[in-house]
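Reopening this ticket.

The earlier resolution said the output was attached, but the attachment link was broken on my side. Pasting everything inline this time so it's all in one place.
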Amino acid sequence: MVHSNAQAEADPILLAQAETDALLGRVTEQIGLDTFDANDAETLHLLVESLGDTRGMTRLRCAETLAEIGEVATPFLLDALANHVNPVVRRAAAKTLTLIADPTAVPHLIHALLNDEDTVVKGSSIGALARIGEPSVQALLDILGSTDLPESTIGHAAWALAFIGAGAKEYLYRAIASDSPVVRGAVVGAIAKVAQEEPKDELFEILVKSLTDVDVDVRCEAAAALGNLAYKPAIPNLIELLDGGDGETRRAAALSLMKVGDRAAIEPLQAALEKESEAAIQGVIKLAISQIK
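Inline output:
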């Protein structure tokens, strides 16, 4: 017995791990007996600190324990997310906030997404924002509408918006009229996800209307969405785009018609092939015709 104590004293990591295990054991028992004191700031602080444990499974146990405790843990996690020197703790704090999904965390998660230098913290923050859902939508749209943020941040925000899907519906209907093509493109992607879950006419109408957007990326996003949804009523609109001014839109229209897979598109595709001057797009149109046949 003396020997093992001496060993623990000699190894501060073993000592710290033993303390963490004891803490988790105690709190788990209290939660099970419904005797955990939600006002015990010291224990909550220690649990958050334990998110830096070197053992992955222990970090996961800490996160799940804090999630079980719930929203009273949010302020401690937000403090760690904003200020902890150890990126492992900041990452785990964001992941734990994903489990709790407390709407009050939204502005803090946005701050971490925009300002933390650790890419995993950024990714975990966007995951939490997506999980929180509707309360995050306006902040995500603001990010998408910004002109001075890196491509990766914009991509993260677009992904989160699509993940939220139906929960963001009311915002999406308004945001499709945004002046920002990036916002409109992200909205098209999100609306496509909603239409997959609940195929309503009004959603398809927005996607079809977006085929004539002034921005090429928005047009291509809408064409891709309608193809993935195999939406046959869009065939005449997609055929019109085969005569479009730019190659990217013609290519997207041909690929979309290929995915819809209706034989009614074969003749217009053959006519477009005869007129097409770009070799790469000719190849796509030929592929579309052969796939539909």
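Reporter confirms the inline version is readable. The CA atoms of residues 103 and 135 lie 6 Å apart. The chain has a mean pLDDT of 93.
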